[in-house]
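User: Just a sanity check before I run the rest of the batch. Below are the structure tokens for the first item. I only need the designed sequence back.
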């Protein structure tokens, strides 16, 4: 492994100052499950790893039905799914955080790291997108908020500017008659990267016969995770039927831009988008009915 400096920041201002000083040669260390591997294997060269785990704001984890959920960027996955109130309110998020690696990895891996690594196949990003999560970013000019679907700009690239880092996520409180589901396809049962991942959320009318709104997000089928806007719009106000769900699945397939690699061909991935979109929507609908 290359030599690099290590620093531990205790405040947001201290972290911003160090990041601004070192620019692209500095990287954030939270769980370390991606960055340590990348540096060790020579896939990323850094001068400084900046540990942010002692900054209070990145360790927040709070939920209430009025204000929703706040998750600090350095909160490990296991802390999220072990809180019963959060698990009950956001089962679609729990689908994703409980899939990342094994138990040991979930003790280190964070939502912030999963997003900032900007892998097209990251499991938590489609789930965060369909739950309308926003990112709170700290930087030299203060803080700013952006929707999760706008955060990644390419494989390994994000909107973060010099001196900026991800502070936390906010998820709005679940609406009545709503549900969400995240599904992925992998060649084996665990410890693998998604060939395709799909998140879906749905808000139903009181009678549970129609969609009020829906959101669908795709992973591993484009340079960045995708929000399938048209697929969601197709369902808004429509009757819950196999025909309408199929139309949404076809719209999701239409925006997918998959590649062929060792884990699957582009045609196979596009087929999986259709299958998983239908199943994720059906799962979201079932959860919405139970939440009523």
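Assistant: Here's the designed sequence for the first item:
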């Amino acid at each position: 492994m290359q030599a690099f400096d290590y620093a531990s920041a205790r405040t947001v201002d201290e972290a911003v100052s160090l990041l601004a000083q070192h620019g692209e040669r500095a990287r954030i260390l939270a769980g370390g499950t991606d960055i340590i591997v990348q540096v060790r294997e020579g896939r990323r060269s850094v001068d400084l790893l900046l540990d942010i785990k002692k900054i209070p704001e990145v360790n927040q984890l709070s939920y209430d039905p009025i204000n929703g959920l706040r998750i600090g960027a350095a909160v490990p996955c296991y802390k999220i799914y072990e809180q019963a109130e959060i698990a009950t309110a956001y089962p679609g998020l729990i689908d994703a955080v409980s899939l990342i690696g094994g138990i040991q990895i979930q003790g280190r891996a964070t939502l912030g790291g999963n997003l900032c690594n900007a892998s097209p196949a990251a499991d938590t990003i489609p789930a965060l997108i369909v739950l309308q999560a926003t990112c709170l970013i700290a930087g030299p000019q203060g803080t700013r908020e952006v929707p999760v679907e706008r955060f990644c700009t390419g494989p390994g690239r994000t909107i973060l500017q010099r001196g900026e880092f991800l502070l936390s996520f906010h998820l709005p409180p679940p609406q009545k008659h709503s549900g969400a589901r995240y599904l992925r396809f992998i060649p084996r049962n665990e410890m693998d990267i998604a060939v395709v991942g799909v998140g879906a959320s749905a808000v139903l009318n009181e009678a549970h016969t129609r969609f009020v709104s829906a959101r669908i997000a795709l992973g591993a089928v484009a340079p960045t995770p995708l929000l399938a806007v048209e697929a969601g719009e197709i369902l808004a106000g429509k009757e819950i039927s196999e025909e309408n769900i199929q139309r949404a699945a076809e719209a999701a397939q239409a925006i997918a831009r998959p590649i062929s690699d060792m884990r699957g061909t582009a045609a196979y991935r596009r087929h999986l988008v259709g299958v998983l979109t239908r199943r994720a929507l059906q799962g979201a609908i079932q959860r919405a009915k139970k939440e009523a």
